[in-house]
Design a protein that fits this description.
Elements lengths: L14 H13 L2 E6 L5 H16 L3 E5 L17 E2 L10 E6 L4 H4 L3 H7 L2 E6 L18 E5 L6 H12 L5 H14 L10 H12 L4 H9 L4 H11 L3 E3 L4 E6 L1 H7 L11 H4 L6 E9 L2 E8 L5 H7 L3 E2 L3 E7 L2 H16 L8
Parallel strand pairs: 1-2, 1-4, 2-3, 4-5, 5-6, 8-9
Antiparallel strand pairs: 7-8, 9-10, 10-12, 11-12
The protein binds manganese (II) ion.
The site of manganese (II) ion (MN) has 6 residues, from loops.
Length: about 350
């Protein structure tokens, strides 16, 4: 049975949910683990961290992502186990574990099927939920646990607490996945979600054999040249509004063609706007394929970008959110600026 968990102060009142998670995990034999589309370091690190731990305990585990692992995260231990197809129907007795997201649509085109076919469902996430209450969006009466802690810095932290609570060993490979997840989702310990627990957990993971220099190199010092060319083009589009408080950049299909870079190469482009001293709201608009736009929103102030994203059909966290929509980058830029100019009461452009 699950050992009593030594819960950090950052988790008031959620010990019970985590204990239910541990009980479900300790009893189940067959698992399908999945995460959100366009998986980032936290999504894959959480998936692989929990997946390797379950394999180590002799469980039957399928690790599923809709698309192949992004080349930048190919260094994560265990990526060779990830598949992009899953049996239909799922084998009887499958426990579905959804990591780093909490809506079927975020899993991709198989999300709803997995939920319909699973024998039990477990959500481990830290995104604000706009979905229905537990159990309302699935049929049947199978166990369904939603462990969603929006104040926690990474989904991987939930995996860490679960493994610790179960008393399962954390190997160097598991630790490397969880550490990478934490480093990714805290922006290398720079984002507002970083706290004492973050450093304690990271420190403990280093104690299990993680090489922080190796992980930092793989994540941040490993870009192809074409990515820098695309970044230069993106920075050329910078627009500053609202007396310097809003900053936007965009990339278009033409820029992708001209630079030779791919969608995967645009990770943290928004950070190059966010880092400007006066900017409180940073926006990166990406039109990778003509007419398909995805937008990253970051806030350095009390402006809730998750709410803004929700107005456009997306979601996320208070300080980091996004949405996808159809249209051109310019259309979406105009729509966002109309909304933000109304909020900030200023449509004048200012020089950088
Ligand atoms: Mn995450």
């Amino acid at each position: 049975m699950a050992a009593k968990i030594d819960m950090a102060e950052s988790l008031p009142g959620d010990t019970k949910t985590l204990e239910a998670v541990m009980e479900l995990i300790s009893k189940a034999d067959r698992f399908l683990l999945t995460c959100h589309v366009k998986p980032d370091g936290d999504a894959l690190g959480s998936l692989l961290g929990l997946g390797l731990a379950l394999m180590g305990r002799g469980r039957d585990v399928t690790l599923f992502t809709e698309e192949p692992v992004p080349y930048k995260l190919g260094f994560l231990p265990g990526t060779e186990y990830i598949v992009n197809e899953a049996p239909d129907p799922l084998p009887p007795g499958t426990t579905l574990v959804i990591l780093d997201c909490n809506e079927p649509s975020r899993i991709g085109r198989y999300g709803q099927r997995f939920i319909n076919q699973a024998s039990s469902i477990l959500v481990l996430d830290h995104h604000l939920s706009r979905g229905p209450s537990p159990g309302q969006d699935i049929s049947g009466d199978h166990p369904y646990i939603r462990c969603i802690l929006p104040d926690v810095f990474a989904a991987a932290a939930l995996v860490f607490w679960v493994l610790k609570g179960l008393g399962w060993p954390i190997s160097r490979d598991i630790a490397t996945n969880l550490y990478t997840a934490i480093l990714s989702d805290t922006g290398s310990f720079r984002h507002s979600n970083t706290n004492k627990t973050t450093f304690e957990m990271a420190g403990e993971l280093v104690g299990y054999g993680v090489d922080p220099y190796f992980v930092a190199n793989m994540l941040y010092e490993n870009h192809p040249l074409c990515r820098q060319h695309l970044l230069a083009m993106a920075l050329d589009t910078i627009e500053i509004r609202g007396h310097g408080r809003i900053g936007l950049i965009q990339v278009t299909p033409e820029m992708f063609r001209a630079s030779g870079a791919t969608e995967q190469d645009t990770e943290d482009f928004v950070g190059h706007v966010r880092c400007i001293d006066t900017v409180e709201i940073a926006i990166f608009i990406k039109e990778a394929r003509a007419g398909q736009v995805s937008v990253s929103l970051r806030s350095k102030s009390s402006f809730n970008v998750a709410e803004l994203a929700r107005e456009f059909g997306g979601g996320g966290h208070f300080h980091a959110a996004g949405f996808r929509t159809s249209g051109t980058a310019s259309d979406v830029r105009a729509a966002l600026l109309e909304r933000l100019d109304a909020y900030f009461g200023d449509s004048e452009e200012t020089d950088v």
